[in-house]
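Listing S7. Sequence submitted for prediction.
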Amino acid sequence: MLRFSLPALLLLSLHASAAPLRYNRDIRPILSDNCFHCHGPDANHRKGGLRLDIRDEALKPAKSGKPAIVPGDSTASELVARLSHADPDELMPPPDSHKTLSPAQKSILTQWIAEGAPYEAHWAYTPITRPPVPTLNDPRASIRNPIDAFIQAPLLARNIAPSPEAAPNVLARRLSLDLTGLPAPVPTPASLETFTDQLLASPQYGERMAQHWLDVVRYADTVGFHGDQNHNAWPYRDWVINAFNQNLPFDQFTRAQLAGDLLPNPGDSEWTASCFNRLTMMTREGGAQPKEYLAKYTADRVRTVSMAWLGATVGCAECHDHKFDPWTQKDFYSLGAFFADVRQWGVYNDYAYTPNPDLRGWSNDHPFPPERAVLSPALVARRDQLIATRTTLGTQLLAAAQQPAFAAWQASASQFLAAHPDGWSSTPPSVAPAKSAAPAIQPDGRIVFPKSKPAPTEISLPATNPTEISAIRIEILPDASHGNSISRGGPVTLKPSFARIDASGKASPLTIRAAEANRRKPRYANGFEITSITSGWTTDPAAASLAHSSTWLLANPVSLKPGESLRVSLPDHAAAALRVSTSPIISNFHQSPPLADAAAFLVLHQPALAKPILALDDQITATRNGLTQVMVTERAPTPLTIRVLARGNWQDESGPVAPPLTPGFLPQPDKHGPLSRLDLANWITSPQNPLTARVVMNRLWRQLFGTGLSAQTDDLGAQGEAPSHPELLDWLAAEFMSDWDFRRMVRLIVSSHSYRQSSLPNPASRDADPLNRWLASQNPRRLEAEAVRDNALAIAGLLDLSFGGPPVKPYQPADYYAGLQFPDRDYTPDKGPDQYRRGIYSHWQRTFLHPMLANFDAPSREDCVALRTASNTPQQALTLLNDPSFVEAARVWASRLLPAANNDAERIRLAFSESLTRPPTPEELRGLLDFLNAARKAYSERPADIPRLLAIGNSPPPKDASPELAAWTSLCRVILNLHETITRY
């Protein structure tokens, strides 16, 4: 397939007749696409002894004895003769290659040889030097910064003036969608400069920028292979967003991800960033071969690093030298060798044929180690906000009539806390007689068991005074008589039951509302830890010398009278020592020291009134005190031995060992001796590496203009495309490398006239440059999948802008996950605010990507993606019309529009202002009014359709299910479906 555009061909024709040709711009694309496959870098597939990618080689006689190129003499050059040879066996490219050169391309090659066949080093591999900024004295120029000089100099040379600046409302929407992925506010901000600074400083800026990086690093919430189970990666997603919001310099951004674990004294941030190395697809399928999958993981990291930072597609070098670029197979495996020290398993389970003792007992419900517990800023913020809400709600719910009871309880609770600051009281227990030796009761309430086999225990705590109990604490304690261990042998498992024993000895069971422990052997469900221990508590085998503590909250607090007691029954257990304590004021797990506030009073004494507080308690508990697990990079005790695999065959170990080395055709690191991942990261962002800054700036340009300066943002190699403005790309790269300040580069680009100009096609260049590669105007571009939904929710007023946290689940068709097994799982859409979170936080299931995301071309992220497609399909229109997210958005938006204006026309004008930042044209207004009246008539005639439409979604349906609201919902669906609504102009 030809890899350069129509404008490029027009440029070639122009240069062929009017100016000397340039190899990188005019010749290399032709040779790379048509000739290098057989006459390029790959020696194993080179035909006829002819190599055309290196000048000295191209000038040598081929096996035929004839030189392909004779500089200055095209008639004596065999290359020219073969381009139009009558004999199919001599014709080049050969017919079976299915490649054909056009007459214009043949003419260009002939002219180039006649001009001396000058070669150039590939533009992307040449050192980055800062080009001089063109000086323009043309009155038609509109220069806001150096970017405009680079863009407008060639335009003015072609007698084309740049387009005028877009209208302020268009620019406000463009800036907002590009920098935050959200619609612009209404009315248009007075100062676009101030507005730009506000956008760049907003949390949504980091979310917008992170989206593209997450594509490149193939971030997902599942492992991809086989059962496609969940893995703990979302803290890495939040780290990336925070890195952009904090404007972490790109060189530090790179080091943290590739080698965060190798940095001095790594903290939570560095460990979380190192999750990058763990985002490979992984398997625990029985029968999978560990060596095969270790080879897959290595190859995946090579492909990702090379595309993310080096702009290279090197997958073919896994089996042979690259056919078009100077990447050798040895380069491929040497790059993979940097990751040989990553601790990993080929198969994440312990099977007989592949024993992994570290994973003994693992199942499909378990996570993918190694992991670390890190503090999540998002969870901490969520916890604190929920606790504050709980406190406020408690005060609001406490009616005036309850104030005396609350005051009396608060006074009693304060006295208790003064005597027991931690909120717990330990009274001397009694233990039912045992068949073996009796346990010893210590003055502090500790029960020390003798050395014996596990046996059941019944513990009684008698009440000598009226005793309120809201929570029970069981501690498992180390004891000197058992070697300072908490166990008499093996892990300790407790499955307690609780009862109130009245004076006659009658037992009344007590129900537990929730239970947690500070230490425990973890249990898992679909990759995530189960924190509750209500069904049983097993101690942590790795912490046998440390005290373990558990808290058991009663569903209904009890008041023991004198003569009554609390009984704690424990089936067979192996605890060395236990202590049971009670509390009258503990109402949750998250406030330490406990508070005697209104919320606690209601939970303990008015459970019916406290239901919303208990719901908040569940949400607070789910934040796990701000801690969460994340996959991290740890160094393996013994690094893998990385060999060059013949044709990529993981079973063939005859190839040479590949040490960690950077690609041989690029400048090498300034270090002698073995190289580490940290050395790789430093080299990637070193001044000697010509690729990284070009790659990142080219991707940023595509993000802000719709097309990169080199359109193939995923491939800056020979099969890519020469930049439309090479000097500009180098200037941007040099500017970026000066301080690696990404936000500064964003501000620089969006401040240029080139960015701010109108996106209407420029009449002076439209015919000669139909793809607008000369940038005589801005480029419209369709919003990415996540932004399509975000935009609709924001317009409706539904979007929840909460930051970070675990992935959320938007509405999804029932049984869409029916094919997922190991384990089987259901998809339950979120309720409440999480349903309206931004798309970047959506659960990303690699093998079953959410249909809305898939329909709008989001990648599955099974592999690195640096270039999303932008298709236009019927499924997209059907999604916008029928996906519950969009139907609900239309209904909520309609509910807001109806009281906001006095007549239909004004409401439509307001809707256009909120969605498109412009008024409707007279024709649009007439058409929508006609549609609105038709919808009113249709719903009046079919009233049964109204509640079905208005009940879609989680937000409360309206009390008045009227034809009017249904008609306006339909009109809002139309506006949300407009091409303009999902397009940035």
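Caption to Listing S7: primary sequence and predicted structure tokens for the chain studied. The first strand starts at residue 371 and ends at 375. The chain has 32 helices and 19 strands.
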